[in-house]
Each structure stands twice: as structure tokens, then as C-alpha cells.
Design brief:
Layout lengths: L1 E7 L9 H14 L4 E2 L3 E4 L13 E8 L5 H15 L7 E5 L7 H10 L7 H11 L2 E4 L6 H14 L4 E2 L11 E3 H5 L5 E4 L10 E3 L7 E3 L2 E8 L8 E3 L2 H4 L3
Parallel strand pairs: 9-12, 10-13
Antiparallel strand pairs: 1-4, 1-5, 2-4, 3-4, 3-7, 5-6, 8-10, 11-12, 12-13
Length: 245
């Protein structure tokens, strides 16, 4: 069965990031033979003075396909690993969601979207998780990370939110690659912010690496008009634009 594993608030400004711990969990699940895991995505939440966060207030989520009988073992593994790997002073939270068991998926999606625009309490997070039968647990500090963990699961479930972790390196000539070559590098779609898909031979300035976003459950490279680059119409979006995702 498919599950979504989401975590938040495991780090401090000097430690490795929450994304690295999410990738550690995914590798651990696969190395123990429980199943296969998908790529980790980062989900931007509200930046607000009333919300404590390390740097950007984002949660991390990834899907996994496991036998139903291994769900308890996977949950225990994630709980113990998150508690062990999170740094002192962090407020880590863990969410494990089984889509097929959700009583009202849109309630979870609404929670995730609201976390991008409003301050939410732990009590609200636990109440939402309880009504949906979702595992939600805290593993140190104030446990405030349960809010972002639940939100991350809801946002990843939509298939239309988040930035893929890691750096996608595209074979390029002086930082330039055509759309067809980009799609051969693990990115399914190359399109403008307005949704126009680029033709195979259209060149894009990609630099040394790019970060795709999750749209329609696919990794998508967003491009914007290139300025000051002779003969090049498009360039990969910069990181400021990605904050919207």
C-alpha cells in the first residue's frame, strides 16, 4: 500500500537539515526491505513571527510503497530514528498517512493549504489527524513540528505543491540545454509559469543545476523569459520564485 511520511522541525541553524533526515528515513526503509520510497519534496509554510522555525518554515514529505503488514514496523522505525537524529532544541513532528484510509481527504488537504497562510495550533493538528485516522506524533522539545508534518502530508497528497530535494544536474553546453535533454535527466515536463510546455529543441539556460517542482504528481522544471542571454528565450526559475511552492 502507499503511505506518505512527513516530518518537520528536526534541525537548528548549525545542523543538517530536515530534508537530509527525510532522505535518511527513506534509505532506511528501503535498506530494511520494507518497500520502495519516492523522492523527498519540500513544502513551504507560512512565515510569521508567531511561528518558530529554523530558516524557511518548510516541511519534508515522501511517499513509500510497503506491505500493509509492515506499517507498524515502519512507523516504529520512523519514530525512533526521528527522536535519535533530531538535534537538541528542535521540536520534531512525524506524520504517517495512508491515503486509502482517509475518511475525508479534502479535510487534510485544506489543513495543508491553510498552513501556508495562517497560524495553526498543535491542538488543531491533532484534532485533524484524529478525524482522519492519521498517525501524528512529536519526538522532542515542544513537538510543534507536528503542525508542519501534517501540513506537509496534505500538500504532497495534492500532487501540486513542493520542491524536489537535491540538485538536478543537466548535461549542458555552457549552461544551456534543450528541453528534450532536460527531460532525459529525471524531469518529466519543462514549462513556463503559465503552463506552456516547451518544444523539444527549445534551449533553456539551466546553469550548473536546477530544482523541479511537483505538479500533477510529476517533477516539472519551470522557466521564465531569459534577459541578457543572446539567442536564449528561456531560463530556469530562480529560487525566489520557488518559495511560492
Amino acid at each position: 500500500m502507499e503511505i506518505f511520511i512527513s516530518i518537520d522541525d528536526t534541525d537548528n541553524i548549525h545542523s543538517r537539515g530536515t530534508g537530509e533526515i527525510a532522505e535518511l528515513l527513506a534509505r532506511g526503509i528501503m535498506s530494511r526491505g520494507w518497500g520502495n520510497c519516492g523522492a523527498v519534496t519540500r513544502h513551504q509554510l507560512l512565515l510569521h513571527p508567531d511561528i518558530p522555525y529554523t530558516s524557511h518554515n518548510s516541511s519534508m514529505c515522501f511517499p513509500a510503497n510497503i506491505p500493509e503488514g509492515d506499517l507498524e514496523a515502519v512507523t516504529c522505525y520512523c519514530c525512533s530514528t526521528l527522536a535519535a537524529e533530531s538535534v537538541s532544541g528542535a521540536d520534531p513532528g512525524l506524520c504517517i498517512m495512508v491515503p486509502e484510509r482517509l475518511s475525508n481527504p479534502q479535510s487534510l488537504v485544506a489543513f495543508g493549504r491553510r498552513a501556508k497562510t495562517a497560524v495553526i495550533t498543535k491542538d488543531e493538528a491533532y484534532a485533524t489527524a484524529a478525524t482522519q485516522g492519521v498517525h501524528l506524533s512529536e519526538h522532542g522539545g515542544t513537538g510543534q513540528g507536528v503542525i508542519g508534518a501534517l501540513a506537509g502530508a496534505g500538500l504532497r497528497y495534492t500532487g501540486n505543491d513542493g520542491i524536489f530535494m537535491g540538485r538536478f544536474r543537466i548535461p549542458a553546453n555552457n549552461g544551456i540545454a534543450v528541453a528534450r535533454e532536460i527531460r532525459r535527466s529525471g524531469i518529466d515536463v519543462v514549462q513556463t509559469m503559465e503552463g506552456k510546455k516547451l518544444r523539444d529543441e527549445e534551449p533553456v539556460f539551466v546553469g550548473e543545476w536546477v530544482k523541479p517542482v511537483l505538479l500533477d504528481n510529476k517533477p516539472v522544471l519551470l522557466v521564465v523569459p531569459a534577459e541578457g542571454l543572446p539567442g536564449i528565450t528561456w531560463k530556469a526559475c530562480d529560487r525566489k520564485i520557488y518559495m511560492k511552492f
